[in-house]
Automatic annotation (TrEMBL):
The protein's enzyme class: hydrolase
Skewed-composition ranges (Basic residues): 559-570
Family membership noted in the UniProt record: Belongs to the DEAD box helicase family. DDX56/DBP9 subfamily.
Function: ATP-binding RNA helicase involved in the biogenesis of 60S ribosomal subunits and is required for the normal formation of 25S and 5.8S rRNAs.
Region (Disordered): 1-40, 343-368, 559-587
Gene3D superfamilies: P-loop containing nucleotide triphosphate hydrolases (3.40.50.300)
Domain of life: Eukaryota
Protein name: RNA helicase
Domain DEAD-box RNA helicase Q: 37-65
Gene source species: Didymosphaeria variabile
Amino acid sequence: MSKRKLNAHDVPEASEPSSPSATPTKNDDTQEQTEKPTFSSFGLEPRLLQGIRNQKWSAPTTVQEKVVPLALEGKDILARSGTGTGKTAAYLLPILDKILRRTEKRVTSSLILVPTKELALQVSRLAVRLAAYCGQDVRVQNLAGKESDAVQRAKLAELPDIVVATPARAAANIGALSLKSLATLVVDEADLIFGYGFKDDLEIVSQNMPKGVQIFLMSATLSTDVEAVQALFCRDPVILKLDDLEKDAQLVKQYVIPCAEQDKFLLAYSLFKLQLIRGKTIVFVGDTDRSYRLKLFLEQFAIKSCVLNSELPLASRLHIVEEFNKNIYNILITSDDTELVGSITKDSESESRPRKKKAKLEGGKTDSGVSRGIDFRDVSCVVNFDLPTTYRAYFHRIGRTARAGKSGTAISFMIPKDQYRKHKSTTFAGSENDEEILKKIDKHQQPGQKIEDWTFDMKRLEPFRYRFADALRAVTRIAVREARIKEIRMELTKSQKLSRYFEENPEELEHLRHDQTLNHPARIQPHLKHVPDYLLPGGKKPQDIGFVALDKPKRRFVKGKGKKVVRGRNGKIDPLKTFNARGKGKK
């Protein structure tokens, strides 16, 4: 009896029974290709499958399809995969499965090294969510948190199953962090580890690690830094060069707008106020001062935005990211300069040994900080207000959009060489080499990809120029400084560490709150909030309704001896407006 199956129109149709000698038809090949593995097909522990269902993941991503089966076999893995492709779960699922199936006593069996505190918190939170149905069988400890050294050492003494840390924190806690029973080591964002100055810390971890440990090296690129990490930990890993990064890059439409220095602000105003770009947008600028300058400028026109500031504590930065992900803000302004990188490695200040200077990349700066490791959701557009100093940082920036199969847009403002330093108040030193950086970006584009010129007609923005100039004058250097100070004061009032101090000194808290309520750093002009129709390109123009006279009382002339009499509305003569029309001395 022939089998019956549903065709593309959900209609049952007959198919011939398969025989061992029969050659597969084209339809059979297509059916085999469309059959993708599921999480249950990996043979994972049932409690993990329940945690996966809670995450509402329908099917494994490409990196999970490749990594999980190899990891369950015990292979060392070196995988290249972009941020947002599911690589965190790709190594967490095999680790959790191994912990749940072990028969030995409780030990610290897995160490996950990440370059930033933000990424450490994301990894530990995901591990806890995936192990939600495992009870006390899986315990996760994040060493990159804000606990003191004494508290962290006490928690490490309880031998947590998984430890997530930056290399500096892991190296500083060797001893309390027992590695003698380590079974799995993960180095996430391996291409950034050396760039953040963690080389010495990795060597300490390597020296205290037993032999036979399974190694995961996860990275967005396969650079020389990754090869150095590979030589330090594993000799013959399975190398997976996944195409996720390239596929996502092909979904990004890239545009460049050559413009004058002051016109960057005019373009930013027009893009957001006229809704030329829609959806959630990340705006990358050169440094933190510039991010506040742009924020205060946009506030003049009632355009809401938030700043991801490297000066703020970790909890505040994560809170800003959460607000952006929850659509409270649709515009996030940030920088990926060395300021953020410096704030990340502050967790090693307690170490007595001196730190070596961070390794430098092309252009003399460390690689992108904000654009890597942090999970920004549903970003539709990336605006490079200031071009980065390296082509690598550019591709990491635009990797914030066009994720999970969605399309995205990247718009970059570029200062031509002849326009540099033509407008001193808006000049940014990093824009001097924009043309050279753009050439390198073009050179390293994937096949079929290119950065296109956005033929933006600046003449159509001329009606807005007086508004733009008025708003930009209000954003002075003093206003930028006051805005940064005001945000730090706001965070001081929310600080848990200072709560006890403020309880004992309530007058100090009142002073801070009083300073918060002072005038806004930049002068707000309410009339700039609305855009008149006649300023819009192709909009309505003011109609000519002719001459409009002033509202004056009607004059009535009375025949007489040359006298001019003016009567009011009540009919009585107004003596102040009545005069002799014939000449002087005549009454």
